[in-house]
Amino acid sequence: MADRRESRLPTSTTAPPRRCAWLRRHRRWLLALAVAALLAQMAVAMVTAAARQTPTIDEPVYVGTAEVYTQEHSLRYNPEHPPLGKLIVAAGLLFAHPYLGAHATDDQTALGRRLLYESGNDPWRVMFWARLPVIVLTLLFGLVVLSFARELFGAVGGLVALALYTLSPDVVANGSLATLDVPAVGFVLTSAWLVWRARRARPLRRLALASVALGAALATKMSTLPAVPVLLLLAVLSLWHARRVPGTGPDAPWRFAARALVVAAGMAVLALAVVWACYLAVDPRLRWSTPGGVPAVHGLRGLALRLLPVPEPYRDGMRIQFGFENATWSGFLFGRVYRGSLWYYLPAALLVKTPLGALALWPAGAAAMLRVPRLRAAAPYVLVPPAVLLAVAMTGSRDLGVRYALFVPVFLAVAAGGVVALRRRGVRLPAVALVLFVAVSSVRAFPYYLPYSNEAFGGPSMTRLRLHDSNVDWGQDLGRLADRLSERYPRERVWLVYKGSGVPSAYGIDAADPRKAPPAEVHGLLAVSDSSVAKADGRLAALLDGSTPVDDVGHSITIFRRP
């Protein structure tokens, strides 16, 4: 009997269980199903947000400019941002068929207001179609996140990265808007991924594609310029590795240096060609006259501007951006109103607005990339671009939102996939739990992604106590306010302090500004954007002191009752 039992031991210990065999046999289909589910829930979240939110502060400018691009082929509006992001928005507007009335004397803010509210267009329809191309692009960048992480960490690591990307409230919030932040970040990520892939044999094709992606980023937002030297250096690193691939003959050091210099220069030229192509796509004749009020730039910045081989509108746009950076802005952080900027604002805002599970998985994945020998080569491609971009952004003068650091959750979602490479016992189960925690936190925020904060800071309803502007209240809830007033407070006197680009009367809100009326006349409902509450002073502060909060709209507008 003993011999018989011993003869059975190898069979019972080495034969794979049927369930494991079934999983391996259907692994590809299970992976495809998981990817489809993650992207589908992200699509539902973004489409829902896009359909329910009124225009944020920046969107009417971009939408109006995009329509001028299409109808008039003019570059005169919104020169502080290059045209590609607005051309993407214009692709959606082709299906909305908006009418653009006379606007010869409008500035860009008035242009957006005229298109949405003064030309007979349906603002809900126009904004939905304007947002839809950005939603599609955001989903496509999710595939880049998946592909990048899967190449580094395998299928499970790719799913971890995709889950953090698709469940990120900041990515969902900004990906559902007709703005430029997600497209710019996504193009930088795509370029970094292609540069990484160029480490293999025959790298020039991938580096050419990386240059196109980098040029697309530069043609979307100028804040991506610091990524140029980083990605060019990483391209040289990829070339160095590619020369060591079996089957390729090694170059002499001087020959490699010359080749690397030529390739880096070629990448820069190709990226600049994409920038030029975007401007020429708007106006083939490139008609341009510098608008009034563009600040002069002197010193090294001025010299760099003069030498940079970009279209003149791009150069003037950079001057406008430098003017923004030289201005003094007001900020709000953890209940404190201040003038100027704080170097730690963006890290603090990310701490508040990132799901707790992601805050744990990001450093764990980054540590894995540095610790595991086979992953160290990839660490510069995943970790250095967001580090450099964050360092530059932290020196900026505008403490207005984590959208200025959106590259952090996108790149670190890729890095987080590295947790699966840690072979220690007890690592994978906590990693799965953390991903599920992120999922729960994200689902609980639905559909209020813009004012999201994690559980440690009280959730979306408490973000207004710690942050302001596009972190909380970017003008997105004017339509929800109209619905709330009609449902719960019909026929009551309403006073409104609204921070946004929407026109209240277009949504059926009949309200006056209480700051323009004698305090003794201000009675009834007082609806105030939370950014205005946070920074209230003077007459508004006095009005709020004598009022009682009675309702909350979208976690971005508070309704008070004033006796």
**Counted beta strands:** 6
> What is the terminal-to-terminal distance?
92 Å
CA-based shape = globular
What order do the SSEs take from the amino end to the carboxyl end, as H and E?
HHHHHHHHHHHHHHHEEHHHHHHHEEHHEE
Number of helices: 24
* Portion of residues within helices: 55-70%
Q: Largest beta sheet: what is the strand line-up?
A: 3-4-6-5
Let me know the average pLDDT. Answer: 92
Q: Assess the beta-strand content as a share of residues.
A: 5-15%
SS-derived structural category: mainly alpha
Defining key terms:
mainly alpha; globular; 6 strands; 4-stranded mixed sheet
In a nutshell, what does this entry contain?
The chain has 563 residues and is mainly alpha-helical.
